[in-house]
Automatic annotation (TrEMBL):
It holds the Pfam family DUF3108. Residues 1-24 form the signal peptide. This is Uncharacterized protein DUF3108. Keywords: Signal. The keyword Signal applies. InterPro entries: DUF3108. It comes from the Bacteria. It comes from Caldanaerobacter subterraneus.
Length: 236
């Protein structure tokens, strides 16, 4: 169950390792839709059965030009906590953490992004340190679902970004295509949404973002689990 949970929750963890390209381009950024504080809560389903919850929080720093994006995901007896500090202008990461708590043991990963990607992992088997080469432009995996809300969506548009996945120490090129508009119904309500296909190799995942100034993530299907928006809070 522990391995199954990790493979389902970690975005793109099934995607293959790829080399870093000098042709990497930054993600186009339109309007930042989340303000200085926002919390989004999701129900998580597997084959239409409620199996867990997830909570994403975005908060702007008062002293630096950064946002802190954190998440808490709970499924059965396992909890995954993540956090990423990103630049407010480029949305590229400065640091992150990734903590799994389970009956099988805890995993703690801390990363810093500088000239290279420094990763420190602590498990029941000890501590490991790793340095990974980075492309010129890259984004942290655990904040990716949220930062993509800032993209200026248009049906038919397509762009590729490099995704840094701390849990697997991989840097993966992800092709994103806005394939259509669809009406989506979730516990929070219903909305007309842009449907985005994310692809790396043969693996595909889908995200639905609302077609309005809030650009809320209404639904996310990673091929194993489906996240459905339940609640939106814009104030502490």
């Amino acid at each position: 169950m522990f391995k199954k949970f990790l493979m389902a929750v970690i975005i793109f963890s099934l995607f293959i390792l790829a080399g870093c390209s000098s042709n990497a381009k930054p993600m186009e950024i339109g309007q930042i839709p989340w303000g200085n504080y926002q919390r989004l809560t999701y129900d998580i389903f597997e084959n239409d059965k409620l199996v867990g919850t997830a909570e994403f929080t975005i908060e702007k720093s008062q002293s630096t030009n950064t946002y802190d994006i954190s998440s808490i995901t709970k499924i059965d007896s396992i909890q995954l906590n993540t956090g990423t500090t990103i630049r407010s202008d480029t949305l590229m990461p400065l640091s992150s953490y990734y903590n799994v708590m389970s009956p099988q043991g805890d995993v703690k990963i801390e990363t810093t992004y500088k000239d290279k990607w420094n990763i420190k992992a602590k498990t029941s088997k000890g501590e490991q340190n790793l340095t990974v080469k980075l492309p010129k432009y890259y984004y942290d995996n655990d904040s990716l679902l949220m930062i993509m809300r800032a993209y200026p969506f248009q049906v038919g548009a397509e762009f590729t970004i490099y995704d840094a996945i701390a849990s697997t120490a991989q840097v993966v090129p992800i092709t994103n295509k806005i394939v259509s508009k669809e009406k989506v119904i979730v516990p929070c309500g219903e909305a007309e949404c842009f449907k985005v296909e994310l692809k790396a190799g043969a693996a595909k995942q889908y995200i639905w973002y609302s077609d309005d100034e809030n650009r809320l993530l209404y639904q996310y299907d990673n091929g194993k689990l489906v996240y459905k928006l339940k609640k939106v809070e814009n104030n502490k």
